[in-house]
Amino acid sequence: MENKIALITGATSGIGEATARLFAQKGLKIIICGRRKERLERLQAELSQLTSVHTLCFDVSKYHEVTESLTTLPQEWKDIDVLVNNAGNAHGLEPIHTGKLSDWEAMIDINVKGLLYVSQCIIPQMVERKTGHIINIGSIAGKETYPNGNVYCASKAAVDSLTKGMRMDLNPFGIKVTQIAPGLVETEFSLVRFKGDRERAKKVYEGYQPLTAQDIAQTIWFVVSAPTHVQIADLVIFPTAQASATIVKRN
User: Fold this and answer.
1) Which of 37, 40, 51, 182 has the smallest number of Cβ neighbours within 10 A?
2) Total domains in the fold of the chain
């Protein structure tokens, strides 16, 4: 894997940041993408001590920003070997009849359309070279709908279906496509979902040991570093305390 190029969306926090750090330690050249320029610059300064790092500041939900950023990559960064579609979000946790349109649009725009926008820019060169690996970060929410999850669950179910479709369409070109669907991971996820309400977000992870961003990064590395003939197609990962989208053993 050394000297291969990986592009990671949502790299300024959580799973994306942890993945960028691990990939840098493993010797991959990395393109880190996110909306928060200061965080990108700090991460670049740190990880540049380990490997070559290129930053792209854009919003995956804005098609023109995605295409402008990815189609103008310097020549030495164009041949991306690994794409980690990590950028995603949840907004709100209300029943369908009281949900907010702005929340629905944000989840669909980032979780579904954003993944498609980025993939559309990267996949053609993988097809041309007949090599590459795409990792889509899904969720247990894409496999099991839970109360008040409605649109978020639907957006992650779309990721599940898109991953399967990508794997079929890209099979003739030797391109691997993987979905990793985590359960409860303690990141900024709940803080964003509850719009900055730290107390409510904290309660999501109380009474048990949740997964960490580093756990998922290690899982991504396991998938990416598998032998050429091995494709991990779909991987669900829970903390030990979790049995399903709605069953969690709390102390």
Assistant:
1) 37
2) 1
